[in-house]
Specification:
Helix content is 54%, strand content 18%. By secondary structure, the protein is of the alpha+beta class. It is elongated, with a radius of gyration of 33 Å.
């Protein structure tokens, strides 16, 4: 019983695709029956192909005609197809019925592709909505009670336990924790927050329980603003789409008016007989139909999409393949895009009496008991060392961690924390640490109980060294930026929620000159709009939820396939499936080639139409020759488009 249910569900979700498939099958079997001389079966199958494949185009064309008083290509194609079929029946040249069905099939396939593209906005919004929990744990008269997010009011106090998502924006009333805000602000490291700090919906709470006061309506939270921005940016029609719509309507009007005039005036102006007039008018409708023009574009773009997929570049629709070739400016997110998004040990600097191995081993012995991302990075870096288990380990949130290993106290933390245990910080190490921090690195100091030290906390410890933690730059990032500049990209910028020092450090490493730091999602959106005002076609490369509005607003949104969030993947137009930045240059090259081939095909298609129309007007071609010329030009430009498969 499951198979009929699944079939019914597939049919409902992919109506246009099913219609195109049925139209193609009926067309094939109708042609086969006609070839065998089974006219009865052919006349049963071919009209069914017309109805099934052309229903949606006819409905849209008639709706546009009656409601908007406009003619479009949908209606023109139906008229041309019916005209070809009528002429075929009249002259008993039944192959013309096949030609009309082919026109309808081409439009049915185009309609199915357009339907898939229109579903992206709805999927993006659904993905965004899943980022926050449906309920919040509210304190009511000293008791915890779960209520829907929509029922939260300003002033409500909510409780968020370790490992839970923050349900709405608010201010911390009590508690201390680290929050992973990378999805919202793009910060590469979890942020430590305590009483008085603002927290955002959709961010992940760390190890501490928090009591939060709601200070704005839930619908005004940052994540809800992201949702609205994505929705707004994706529903704004780009200028190219508006131009295509105007062109289709204008073309249809010209052809229909010309067809009507050609079917009525020649007998009065040139003395043609009515049979010749109708014959040439119907031939005009066939040769003037825009099949070759349509084939000039879609096969090329589909071939480019297939080529990109083989190279790990997923184009979500053909329009983006064209647009990527026109890009003049590119904006890169930092965390997870230009960098790996995973904090790692960048450098270990030992004091004169110690080795790097001593420093790393001592720090890892106590950090192995920590859940902090920095601690995990240190333990991972010391994975091949023979670690000694520590005892009496105590973590001091926001400062550091202490423990005893091999009967010596080990202190790991920031400079202020370590200074509580040591007499002084070595000047040389202090200067190195300051230099590393200016480059955007997080510096962790490591000290141990000194020889002959007194009681714990008596400032008898000595510094072993420092460990620099950083989000690693992708190895191919610098080469990618260089290649993009060689391709003539006029402006390359970096957008990030991180601080200015970290941003400038990464930008310098990869060769980006312009940096926008400490940005919220709406700030990134504003930067994209400014770039579009100057450069028109702008690409945005990102991976996080915070990048979703900018990805949607950009002319071309490019997401990282492996590290990217679900929302970024849904919102973006292009996905780099293997997170290989160098594929951006490949995508631009494919886009430029597709533009070139499309222009060539349009020139050929229009050239054939002009020649056929002239021949029809002068009476030097008959309908079979017109159909051959029409179908031949369609096949020619289709084969030309397939060149991108190489």
């Amino acid at each position: 019983m499951l198979y009929p249910q699944r079939l019914g569900q597939f049919t409902r979700e992919h109506t246009d695709t099913v219609a195109a498939l049925l139209c193609g099958l009926l067309l094939f079997f109708g042609w086969f029956a006609l070839h065998l001389g089974w006219l009865g079966l052919a006349f049963l199958l071919l009209p069914a192909a017309y109805v099934i494949g052309g229903y949606e185009s006819a409905r849209e064309g008639l709706t546009t005609l009656f409601k908007e008083k406009e003619l479009d290509v949908d209606l023109l194609m139906i008229v041309a197809a019916i005209g070809a079929a009528s002429l075929g029946l009249w002259r008993r040249e039944y192959h013309l019925i096949i030609d009309g069905a082919i026109l309808i099939l081409i439009f049915a396939i185009s309609g199915a592709l357009e339907g898939y593209a229109m579903q992206r906005t709805e999927r993006s919004i659904r993905s965004l909505m899943s980022l926050t929990p449906d309920t919040a744990r509210v304190l009511l008269q000293g008791r915890e009670e779960e209520i829907p997010i929509s029922q939260l009011k300003v002033g409500d106090e909510i409780v968020v336990k370790p490992g839970e998502l923050i349900p709405t924006d608010g201010i911390i009333l009590s508690g201390y924790s680290t929050l992973n805000q990378a999805a919202i602000t793009g910060e590469s490291l979890p942020v430590e927050k305590t009483v008085g700090a603002e927290v955002f919906a959709g961010t992940l709470n760390g190890y501490g329980a928090l009591q939060i006061k709601v200070h704005k309506p839930a619908q005004s939270s940052l994540i809800q603003r992201v949702i609205r921005l994505v929705e707004q940016a994706q529903t704004e029609a780009p200028p190219s789409q508006e131009f295509i719509d105007r062109f289709e309507k204008g073309y249809a009007k010209v052809i229909v008016v010309a067809g009507v005039l050609l079917a009525t005036l020649p007998p009065f102006l040139w003395g043609w007989d009515w049979e010749t007039t109708i014959y040439r008018a119907l031939t005009f409708l066939v040769v003037a139909s825009p099949c070759a023009l349509m084939a000039a574009i879609m096969p090329t773009l589909l071939s480019g999409i297939a080529n990109g997929a083989r190279q790990g570049i997923l184009f979500k629709n053909g329009a983006q393949l064209e647009k990527i070739g026109k890009v003049r400016a590119i904006a890169f997110d930092k965390t997870g895009t230009l960098t790996t998004g995973q904090v790692q040990v960048f450098q270990v600097i030992a004091a004169s009496e110690y080795t790097q191995e001593n420093v790393l081993k001592a720090a890892a012995s106590v950090e192995s008991y920590s859940e902090h991302p920095i601690g995990k990075a240190i333990v991972q870096a010391a994975d091949d060392l023979d670690l000694v288990g520590a005892i009496q380990v105590q973590a001091i949130p926001g400062q550091g961690i202490v423990g005893i290993a091999q009967e010596q106290q080990i202190i790991v933390g920031n400079a202020v924390f370590v200074q509580q245990y040591v007499t002084n910080l070595p000047e040389e190490l202090r200067k190195m640490a300051q230099s590393l921090e200016q480059e955007g690195k997080t510096v962790v100091w490591v000290a141990q109980e000194g020889r002959g030290a007194g009681e714990q906390g008596s400032r008898g410890a000595e510094v072993m060294g420092v460990i620099a933690i950083a989000d690693q730059v992708r190895w191919q990032a610098a080469a990618t930026i260089t290649r993009l500049k060689q391709l003539g990209i006029e402006q390359i910028v970096m957008l990030t929620g991180d601080n200015e020092e970290t941003a400038q450090s990464v930008a310098k490493a990869v060769g980006i000159d312009r940096v926008y730091a400490q940005l919220l999602p709406e700030d990134k959106l504003d930067v994209i709009r400014l770039l579009q005002q100057k450069y028109q076609t702008v690409a945005m490369v990102g991976d996080g939820i915070n990048d979703a509005p900018a990805l949607a607003q950009a002319s071309v949104g490019i997401a990282m396939g492996i590290s990217g969030s679900d929302v970024a993947l849904e919102t973006a137009d292009i996905v780099l499936m293997a997170d290989k930045l160098e594929k951006i240059a490949v995508a631009i090259h494919l886009g430029r080639r597709s533009q070139s081939i499309v222009k060539q095909n349009i020139f050929v298609a229009l050239g054939f139409i002009v020649l056929l129309l002239m021949g029809n007007f002068l009476g030097s071609i008959n309908l079979p020759i017109g159909v051959i010329g029409h179908e031949g030009s369609t096949v020619l430009v289709t084969l030309s488009g397939l060149r991108l498969l190489k």
